């Protein structure tokens, strides 16, 4: 928290530095003009110089406050341009009126007493052109800076997501290749080779597909729910060789979400976890319920299994990586929860935003 606060303070400090330095440099031209052309003298030139800096900072800071409040930095380029162009024009007009008002006050009190207020306020050339130029440069620089910062953050998040996905790939492959899993699978296949060769061949195909998906599907990053369910069914079919009637799977899926894309192998991880920490520890086994549905603007993926949560054990590395992937992929808008719904049932739920662009 303190690190985040320090970063914000550093950004604010940088902003004010740029404001003062930038407008101080810009205002030197006008100070030189009134000093050499209008013979204002040192004191009046300095006063005019300070007022010019204040006008520039006031207008642009007001723009910054509004832009931050309206979250313009999060808008796509096209939507941002539509808002920026009229804003620049408005800032330039305000620059004209405030500058003219400054000149009226300045001349009335320090130079000449009688000033035609209306005529002075209507003096637009070349002040409007100057205002348009200055405000365009400032607004463009401001949004380019924020765009650059956003791109840097996105690049870092993508790099981190890639690393976590690769680690998850290795974790999942490790789980599939662990001696216990392979020993049970191969033993079951061995017993079927003579008794039921067709089933044995099917089991070998399933095991091969699962190991292949552990290696290659993870690289996709995202996969449709329909494709993910196919992997889950293959995994359950293979595990049923070991658990037989002790393992059952019930699936309920809204048709509308079939082609929606989710992080690859995320549902399979929940099902694996349900078998390892639920079904495998219960003598009579049980039923795993998989429910996928659309709730308003979110997709809910729920896996329920008989069992209890052991609070003395830490969450597995696979679940931790899943949480990190969700956080980065959906920018803190997705959630994962593992809860004890009653004394005999555990529920794992992933909630992700329903985004029209399925590639996110």
Automatic annotation (TrEMBL):
Chain segments annotated as transmembrane: 12-35, 41-59, 80-101, 121-141
Ranges for domain Signal transduction histidine kinase internal region: 168-247
GO MF: kinase activity
InterPro entries the UniProt entry points to: Bact_2-comp_sensor_kinase (IPR050640), HATPase_C_sf (IPR036890), Sig_transdc_His_kin_internal (IPR010559)
Keyword terms of this UniProt record: Kinase, Membrane, Transferase, Transmembrane, Transmembrane helix
UniProt keyword Transferase present: yes
Keyword Cell wall biogenesis/degradation: no
One Pfam family cited in the UniProt record for this chain: His_kinase
Protein name from the UniProt record: Histidine kinase
Lineage: Bacteria, Pseudomonadati, Bacteroidota, Flavobacteriia, Flavobacteriales
């Amino acid at each position: 928290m303190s690190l985040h606060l320090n970063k914000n303070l550093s950004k604010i400090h940088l902003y004010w530095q740029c404001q003062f330095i930038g407008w101080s440099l810009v205002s030197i031209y006008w100070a030189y003009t009134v000093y050499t052309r209008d013979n204002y003298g040192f004191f009046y030139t300095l006063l005019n110089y300070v007022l010019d800096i204040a006008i520039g900072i006031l207008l642009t800071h007001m723009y910054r406050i509004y832009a931050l409040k309206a979250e313009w930095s999060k808008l796509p380029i096209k939507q941002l341009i539509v808002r920026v162009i009229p804003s620049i024009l408005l800032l330039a007009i305000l620059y004209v009126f405030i500058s003219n008002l400054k000149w009226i006050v300045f001349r009335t009190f320090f130079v000449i007493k009688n000033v035609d207020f209306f005529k002075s306020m209507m003096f637009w050339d070349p002040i409007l052109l100057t205002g348009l130029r200055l405000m365009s440069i400032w607004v463009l620089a401001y949004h380019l800076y924020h765009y650059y910062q956003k791109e840097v953050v996105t690049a870092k998040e993508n790099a981190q997501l890639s690393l976590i996905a690769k680690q998850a790939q290795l974790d999942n492959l490790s789980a599939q290749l662990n001696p216990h899993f392979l020993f049970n699978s191969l033993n079951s296949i061995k017993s079927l080779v003579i008794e039921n060769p067709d089933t044995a061949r099917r089991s070998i195909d399933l095991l091969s597909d699962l190991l292949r998906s552990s290696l290659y599907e993870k690289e996709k990053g995202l996969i449709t729910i329909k494709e993910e369910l196919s992997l889950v069914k293959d995994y359950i079919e293979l595990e049923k060789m070991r658990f037989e009637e002790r393992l059952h799977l019930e699936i309920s899926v809204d048709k509308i979400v079939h082609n929606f894309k989710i992080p690859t192998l995320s549902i399979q991880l929940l099902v694996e976890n349900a078998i390892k920490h639920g079904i495998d520890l219960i003598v009579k086994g049980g039923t795993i319920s998989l429910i996928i549905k659309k709730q308003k603007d979110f997709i809910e993926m729920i896996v329920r299994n008989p069992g209890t949560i052991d609070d003395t054990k830490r969450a597995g590395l696979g679940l931790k990586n899943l949480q990190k992937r969700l956080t980065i992929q959906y920018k803190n808008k997705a959630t994962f929860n593992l809860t004890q719904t009653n004394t005999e049932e555990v529920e794992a739920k992933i909630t992700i935003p329903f985004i029209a662009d399925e590639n996110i």
